[in-house]
Amino acid sequence: PRYPLTAPTSEVETDPRELERFAEHFKQRRIKLGVTQADVGKALAHLKMPGVGSLSQSTICRFESLTLSHNNMVALKPILHSWLEKAEEAMKGKDATGELSGILPNTDKKRKRTSIAAPEKRLLEDFFRQQPRPSGERIAAIADKLDLKKNVVRNLDQTFHTSALHV
DNA sequence: ATGCATGAGAA
DNA sequence: TCTCATGCATA
């Protein structure tokens, strides 16, 4: 745990009703933006606010549900407000780079790891045993037969030859 | 969403 | 030692 994010002394803007209003607004906007509580917490580190790092999903959740101490709410409000502003702006401009980088979560789809069933795997091993480093044509043929992408087959051949199991 | 634990700073 | 912000783990 890192510290201390306490309210800037005395009565800055401590109206509970205003906090409540903001928390609700924040939550609604966040959801509209399709961002999770955890995403927000992470993104806070990308704001350039001094002394502000990332926060956990727990804390964001508690902020939205007003289950933090009053002082804590007051301290966090400007931070989350700042994030929300930038997030709206980033969304509007679809700007994933520059100052707004990291404000919104990466939507880049990660390549799914290809998994090959055991029977097919044995078949491939047979192929590679017979003919290591197959030609592009042969790879294409195998890939077609097993309904896999050529690159998958090529890489599997590589894996097979480097595997200690087969030396 | 929340129970429980942790560690920092105040008293 | 007490208080409080915060996170982890889990329902």
Automatic annotation (TrEMBL):
<feature type="domain" description="Homeobox">
    <location>
        <begin position="107"/>
        <end position="154"/>
    </location>
</feature>
<dbReference type="GO" id="GO:0000978">
    <property type="term" value="F:RNA polymerase II cis-regulatory region sequence-specific DNA binding"/>
</dbReference>
<protein>
    <recommendedName>
        <fullName>POU domain protein</fullName>
    </recommendedName>
</protein>
<dbReference type="GO" id="GO:0005634">
    <property type="term" value="C:nucleus"/>
</dbReference>
<feature type="domain" description="POU-specific">
    <location>
        <begin position="11"/>
        <end position="88"/>
    </location>
</feature>
<dbReference type="GO" id="GO:0000981">
    <property type="term" value="F:DNA-binding transcription factor activity, RNA polymerase II-specific"/>
</dbReference>
<keyword id="KW-0804">Transcription</keyword>
<keyword id="KW-0805">Transcription regulation</keyword>
<keyword id="KW-0539">Nucleus</keyword>
<feature type="DNA-binding region" description="Homeobox">
    <location>
        <begin position="109"/>
        <end position="155"/>
    </location>
</feature>
<keyword id="KW-0238">DNA-binding</keyword>
<keyword id="KW-0371">Homeobox</keyword>
